[in-house]
Amino acid sequence: MLRKAKKEIFVQVGTKPLVTVDPTLSSFEGHPFFEKKANAAKKLFSRVGLPKGINKKIR
């Protein structure tokens, strides 16, 4: 039977850099594409409604 070397696993938490938004980027507020998508979502939610359990807080 072959003996396999035990792999060492290092767990690192919080090693990813934080995401920052470049302030020179333009805002997409009022952009026709996103306005169309938001209106379609509002129309769907008004027609279908939200699930009953979505407002319950998880403890």
Short description:
The protein has 59 residues and is an all-alpha fold. The protein is 29% helix and 0% strand. It has one helix and no strands.
Textual characterization of the structure:
- With 59 residues, the protein is mostly helical.
- Helices cover 29% and strands 0% of the residues.
- It contains 1 helix and no strands.
- The chain has one helix at 32-48.
- The termini are far apart.
- The model has no long low-confidence stretch (mean pLDDT 78).
Question: Percentage of helical residues?
Answer: 25-40%
Secondary structural class:
mainly alpha
**Total helix count?**
1
Question: What composes the largest sheet?
Answer: none
The portion of residues forming beta strands comes to under 5%
Distance between the termini: 49 Å
List the quaternary state of the chains. single chain
Overall pLDDT, averaged? 78
Q: Would you report the number of β strands?
A: 0
Overall outline? extended
- Unreliable segments (pLDDT under 50, ≥5 consecutive)? none
Query: What is the chain-wise order of helices and strands?
Result: H
